Amino acid sequence: MTKHDKPQEFFKIFNQFPEGVCILSPEYTVIFWNRSLEHWTGIVSEQIVGTDIRDRFPHFNQAKYQQRLQPIFAGGPPTIFSSQLHTSIIPCQLPDGRWRVQQTTATAIQMSNQSDFYALLVIEDVTDLTYRMQMYRLMRDQAWEEIRERKRIEAALRESQHFVQKITDAAPYILYIYDWQKQQILYINQQIEIRLGYSVAEVQALEDRDFLELIHPEDVVQVEQHRERLANATEGEILEWEFRFKNRSGDWRWLHCREVIFQKNEGGKIQQILGTAEDISERQAALWERKQATEAIRRQIEQQRLMSVVVQHIRRSLDLQEVLTTAVTEIRTFLQADRVAICALNLLSDDRLVMSTGEVKVESVNPEWRSILRTQLTCSHWDACDFSYVLQREILRDAIAIADLSTAPLSPSFKQLLASWQVQALMEVPIFQGDRLWGLLMVHQCGSKREWQPLEIELIRQLADQLAIAIQQAELYERLQQANQELQRLAISDSLTQLANRRRFDQYFTEQWHRLTREQQPLSLILCDIDCFKIYNDTYGHVKGDWCLQQVAVAIAAGAKRPADLVARYGGEEFAIVLPNTSLAGAIQVATEIQTHIQQLHIPHVKSPVSDYITLSLGVASIIPQQSLQAMSLIQQADQALYEAKDRGRDRICSFGNRETFPTLS
Known about the structure:
Layout: H1 5-10, E1 20-24, E2 30-33, H2 35-41, H3 45-48, H4 53-56, H5 63-73, E3 79-81, E4 102-110, E5 117-125, H6 127-149, H7 153-159, H8 161-169, E6 174-179, E7 184-188, H9 191-196, H10 200-205, H11 208-213, H12 220-231, E8 239-246, E9 252-264, E10 270-279, H13 281-299, H14 301-316, H15 320-335, E11 339-349, E12 354-365, E13 376-377, H16 384-396, E14 400-402, H17 412-420, E15 425-433, E16 436-445, H18 454-491, H19 502-519, E17 523-530, H20 533-540, H21 542-559, E18 566-569, E19 574-580, H22 584-601, E20 616-623, H23 632-647, E21 652-655, E22 658-663
Helix pairs in contact: 14-15, 14-18, 15-18, 20-21, 21-22
InterPro entries: Diguanylate_Cyclase (IPR050469), GAF (IPR003018), GAF-like_dom_sf (IPR029016), GGDEF_dom (IPR000160), Nucleotide_cyclase (IPR029787), PAC (IPR001610), PAS (IPR000014), PAS-assoc_C (IPR000700)
Domain PAC: 239-292
Domain Phytochrome chromophore attachment site: 319-466
């Protein structure tokens, strides 16, 4: 076994993924190459595993890929190679000659007993979506071409203003049309008032100098730069820029604008600009906080080195209980604290009262002190004052450190609770999931008072952030598992009838053929077809036809009662029933029962030459599979019997090799 065999075995589950999956070492050696990539590129795993991917795909040498992948090999957060920026990270063509467009997520992973990080590339085929977007852009460009050709465009826009207003006001962002020549806003939707507090009339009345006064002084220079870019922009090119804008309250709000040339005059000069503005203040604030945190981490390299062990444990597993248990154990050891616990909270609020419940989920405690694991907390443990204490942490999103609880300004009830836990000093940090307060990370000193050092407080705060990520990852992983199960169900189901689809039929039929070949037991197959279904569709319409297919599917499924029997939609109006361990006589009995259920439906089919109601023709075949036979032979026999049933007048059952037919009892 080579050094690459173990990863191949460990990651073979990725061979079931419809997405492409590739794993690279820090030296860009291919560690794993799944079947989807084999199918897409024509390069089999044996040819590429163990080789440098840059030999086959030299573009990996480009700086933009190196800059994105190197942080992954260092254990950094996941990154996405958007299809808009990287058409194909693994270039390959579709059978129709088009290049396959991809969107790739790169994630850092570690092999067992190895310290190095590897890059897990999950490559999603977004070709169809991309081409649909291109078609949409083409349609959009054609629409703009028509608009440019219309005369008196401003009059037409005014006439349709009410309709446009209703649409654009529903948009979640500010949308505007700017007259380049007049330097004036021609149109803006109601979001300007919702987002920034200004009325539509106020904004339309703004002159250029008034607009500049509302832009942050540091960002005014960008206005001229942006106008220069617009003047040189090609038609359809989208230009983006960000700046700070003063709202009605006097606060600076970050706006992200995307603008495109909307109209040119007869001389080819820019007439109107179409733009959108999104309030990204919260995102910018988060970025600023992240920059500040990064700078703090740089200044505290030694502390970060000490906490790296905990972080590695947190990131190693998607089992939330394991992650939390490891975290509290490592934190208690590192801080030499008496108890470290995590309490999950459930905060509810209304206009009258704030209520809270909680439970201590995990704990690491010195054996000298009592355990508080699984302690249930309700609003009776706190009074109104303590609620403000909890909510204060929610607002501040920061640590609370108390060196001596006996002198702390806490309510008697809260002090009594902490005394029952034998706590003399505490440090607590909230754990957030977005804007939701998920719980508290609690550090207790029971044997003595303790002055908490700034580095210790910062450590716990950072670990709380890491735990928040771990909690989110665990929740996302659980949702991913559920989504994968649903995708697997959808992949083998027919969306209209909810029966097994052709793919599932082929898979199940092959499985049963091989099994019954070993066991030398009979395998039967029924192929049935709705008689004159095209005439039904032409007479009643496709909506009614879909309804008919659904009713027939239910009736057929009712005839195949055993768990091992599989009913599948084989084609348009054709169905197949796989009957393992069933003789020909048993299969004919099932077919007869299916016909009875169909007759009971009593679905009118007035133009059918066979009957006034929907009928089925059924072909039955049975065989004991042999090594010398192909599975397709049974399908051919059932198909031949179905053809014979149709040839003899439809609405009947024919079995392969038996001249006797079983017409309807009606």
